[in-house]
Amino acid sequence: LRRQKVDIKKLSNELLNSNLTALSQAITLVESQSNRHEDSVKKLIENCLPHAGNSVRIGITGVPGVGKSTFIESFGMHLISQGHKVAVLAVDPSSSISGGSILGDKTRMEKLVQSPHSYIRPTASGTSLGGVSRKTRESIALCEAAGFDIILIETVGVGQSETLVHSMTDFFLLLKLAGAGDELQGIKRGIIEMADAIVINKADGNNIDQAKSAKLEFNRALQLYPPKSNDWKPKVLLASGLKHQGIDKIWELIERFVKQTKSNQSFDDNRALQAKYWLTQSIEENLKKDFYSHSEIKIALKKELLKIDQKKTTAFEAAENLLKLYKKTKL
Amino acid sequence: LRRQKVDIKKLSNELLNSNLTALSQAITLVESQSNRHEDSVKKLIENCLPHAGNSVRIGITGVPGVGKSTFIESFGMHLISQGHKVAVLAVDPSSSISGGSILGDKTRMEKLVQSPHSYIRPTASGTSLGGVSRKTRESIALCEAAGFDIILIETVGVGQSETLVHSMTDFFLLLKLAGAGDELQGIKRGIIEMADAIVINKADGNNIDQAKSAKLEFNRALQLYPPKSNDWKPKVLLASGLKHQGIDKIWELIERFVKQTKSNQSFDDNRALQAKYWLTQSIEENLKKDFYSHSEIKIALKKELLKIDQKKTTAFEAAENLLKLYKKTKL
What we know:
7-stranded parallel β-sheet; homodimer; 331 residues; alpha/beta; 14 helices
C-alpha cells in the first residue's frame, strides 16, 4: 500500500465482489491520513457509495465490564444463523491513549472472528472527533458496499463517542448490568434519551432477580421522557451474551423497529438528517478551526479576554473586534 | 431619544447616581437596534462596565401558571426588607409572537412596582437569540452600575431561553407545582441539571401534602445526577408566593450558595466562564451566519445535499467543496 500506487478500480471491484482482503485494504486507505492518498480515497468512496446504504446500522454501548464482546459474539452469531452478513466496527476516540482496548479481546469473539459471514475491524482512532467520525462513516459505507447488511458499531462511551455513534446508526442499544438497586445512578447524561433499547446483560443464574428489578426501574425512567419523533417507544430487555439467552428477542425487536420506522418513513428521514448533521458539523468544525488557529486571532483573543476580565469590554464587543480583525486578515 | 443626539456622558453619570429614568433610557438605547446608536451604546457600556458586576444574578423559570409574578413580588419585597436593591428583567424570545406575555401582569407585582428600591423592566425581545442575549447581558450591567445588587431574570422557558438565562446568572431557580404524583413527567430535558434549587410553589392550604410528596420525588431525581463542578448540591424547597411562606428560606439558601461558591472561587470562575462562553457563542454564531447567508453557498449547499441524497458524495466531501467555494469567494 505504501510503496506502490493503489489500483483503485481493481480494489473497488474486488470490494464490491465481497473480497474481504480488499475491504481491509480499502478501510486502511480511508484511515490513512496521508495527503498522498486523498484522491485515491475519493475515487474509492465514489465507486462504493452507490452500493452502500442497504443495511441496518446498530450502535452498541456500555461501560467496560458490561460484557460487550461476549454479547456481540452471541448476537453476531445469531444474526449469521438468520442469514445475515455482519460487520463489526468500533469507535474509540481514546484509543491513542489507551492503546486501543476496544475489540482487542477477540478471544471473546472466537466464533464470530472465524465465520466467513462476519468482518471485524478494531478501532477507528484519531486525534479529532471529526476525523474519527469521517473514517467511521466511510468504513460503514465500504462494509455495506462489500455486502454486509448488518453493521454493529461498538463504543466504550468515552467523552462524546456515544453521541457520535448515535448520529450514524439507525438503532442505538445500551448494555447495562443489574446492580444494587439504584440502576440509574451514575448513568451518563443524555444516554437514556439516545437509547432505542436498554439490554440488561448477564441476566442469568443468580442475577435474574436483580435484572428483573433493574428492568422495572429502567422502564419507569423511560416513561419520564417525551416520545421520540419516530414514535418508537424504547424497550428494556434481559439477555445473557454468555448463555445466549434473550438474544433472539433483541433481534426481533430491532426487526420490528426497522419495519415500523421504514413504514412511517422515519428510517430514511433519520438517515437524511444524519447526513445533513455531518455536513453542517464538518462545515462548522472547519470554520471554527480556521478562525481559532489563525495566529493573529490567537494573540488578539488573549488580549480581548483580558480586557473582559478587567471590565474594559463585553464579550459581544470583543467578538465584534475579533471578527473584524479576522475579515481584515482574509482580504 | 430619537430626535436629538444623546448626551452619553450626562446619561452615564445620572445612571451611576442611581437615577432610574436614566437607567430606563439607557436600556432603551441598548435595546434599539439602530446603527445610529451603535457608538453611543458602546460609550455608555464602557462608562458603566467598571461599576458593574457587584450583584447576585438569579435566574427564575417555570411554566405559565406556576405563579412566577406572585413569587417575584413576594421574593423581591423580602429582599428589599433585607436592605437590597432589586432589578427584575425578563427574557422572552417568543415575545414577538406572543406580544410579550412576560412581566406583563404587573397587577401581581403591585408592591414591587411601587418600591423605590426596585426596578422592573419587561421583555428584552428580539429576532435572534444572540440579539436577546446581548441586550440582556448589557441590561444586567446597566442595572448593576445603577446600584442594584440583586438581579432577577425571569423566563417562561420557551425554546432555548432557559439555557440562555442559565448562562448569564449565578443561581438558577426552577419553580414547579405539585401535581398528581408523577412530578417529573413532562419536565423539559436538561432543566433539572441546570437548577440550583427547585421551589415547589403554591405549597399552601390543601396543597401541602402533594407539595411534600413532590419534594421527595424531586430530591430522588436530583440524586441521579453527578455532582456539579462547584460542589453545590441542588435543593428542593416548598414555598407560597401568595402567602409569603418559605420565601425567607429561599433567600437564606441563595446566601449560603453565594458564600460557598465565593469561598471556593467557583462564583468568579463561573462568571469568567460565562463571559468566555458568550464570546465564543457570538463569534461562532457570526461565522455561521456569514457562511450560510452567502448567496453562492446557499445555492451550492442545495446541490451538495441533493448529491448526498443521490449517493454521489459524502457529507464530508460535500463540506470540503463548500468550504473551498466559500474561501474562493472571500478572496
